[in-house]
Amino acid sequence: MPNLKVKPSSTHGRVTHVTPESAGWTYVGFEMHRLKLGETVSGDASGREVCLVWVSGKGKAKAAGEDFGSVGGRMSPFEGAPHSLYVPAGSGWSVTAETDLELAVCSAPGGGDYKAKLIPPGVHPQFQRGKGSNVRLVTNIMPEDDNSAHSLLVVEVITPSGNTSSYPSHKHDQDNLPNESLLEETYYHRVNPPQGFAFQRVYTDDRSLDEAMAVENGDVTLVPKGYHPCATIHGYDLYYLNVMAGPKRVWKFHNAPEHEWLLK
Predict the structure, then answer these.
(1) Cα 120 vs. chain centroid, distance in angstroms?
(2) 249 by DSSP, 3-state: which?
(3) What is the CATH number of the domain that holds 175?
């Protein structure tokens, strides 16, 4: 199995590149691009649908033959809601930076008759999940109930310092609906202030997979199967961008039985 933690390869251009082949799985792809003013990144038409997420900065966007104009605005993922753009399979796209720009490219197999669509802030308002030291702030970008994509599920989460997240431990690695869905998942992590770190554990019931990782600013973690909780440390907030996809566009998870008492 590939290393579950992917470090950024550089500080400029395409700094992160995860493909189904490199991850050893079938569905999810993820890239992070860091551009300077005036630089352009583009993607060719293919059989994969894409969700572009403006993690920070602004850029002029074109997709599927349509000009979407200037998109973005926040200068940090910890400040405000995201701008995103869905691009269906078979359509090209390009983004030209109007400021320093951090652009995430989330991808999965496409299909169906979907249209390119801008997803501005407020379409899915931020909400709080959890209680006590398990509080986190969630902003859905492409949730399962929006009927706007063939495979992709995309969400942002901010976990305040000293809190846990993706917890109590849950998994979604069985194609066994209505009880559980099979979804691969990536986590793109950011830390505020950036010199901090957080922790993530990925493990299965039988512990055939059991990996605990210290994640730093810009790291990507892979969740091919199993439970995958995160924990922050005092003084540092954690942002992560999740990309999920599988054979069915449904998020149905199974909680680790030994930790379900925390939900009562």
Answers:
(1) 17
(2) coil
(3) 2.60.120.10
Please write the tens of the pLDDT for every residue from 200-259.
999 999 999 999 999 999 999 999 999 999 999 999 999 999 999 999 999 999 999 999
Positive/negative CA dihedral, 248, 255, 226, 156: positive
Q: In total, how many domains does the chain have?
A: 1
For residue 227, what is the DSSP state? B
Q: Give strand pairing partners of 171.
A: 254
Q: Which domain holds residue 152?
A: 5-263
CA gap 93, 220 in Å, rounded: 24
Query: What is the helix (H) or strand (E) element at residue 20, kind and residue range?
Result: helix 20-23
Q: What 3-state class would DSSP assign to 145? A: helix
* Rg (the chain; Cα; Å): 17
Q: Is the pTM of this model over 0.90?
A: yes
Helix/strand/coil percentages in the chain, nearest 5: 5, 50, 45
Distance CA 260, CA 145 (A): 25
Phi–psi pair at 259, nearest 5 degrees:
-110, 0
